[in-house]
Amino acid sequence: MKKKTILGGSILLLSLLCGWVFAACPSADLTGDCYVDMEDFAEFASQWLTGYHIPDDFIKLTGGTFDMGDSNDGSSDALPVHSVQLDSFYICKYELTNGEYCAYLNSAYQGGLIAVIDDVVYKAGSGTTYPYCNTHSVSNTSQIDCNDGVFSVRTKGGRDMSDDPMVEVSWYGAAAYCNWRSLQEGKELCYNLSAWECDFSKKGYRLPTEAEWEYAARGGVPNLRFPWGDTITHGQANYYSDTDYFYDVSPTRGYHPTWNDGIFPYTSPSTYGVDNFYHLKNVAGNVAEWAYDWYSPTYYSITPYPHVNPTGPLTGENRVMRGGGWSYYAPSCRVAARDGHPPYVRFNGCGLRLVLPPE
Question: Residue 40: is its pLDDT beyond 70?
Answer without folding.
Answer: no
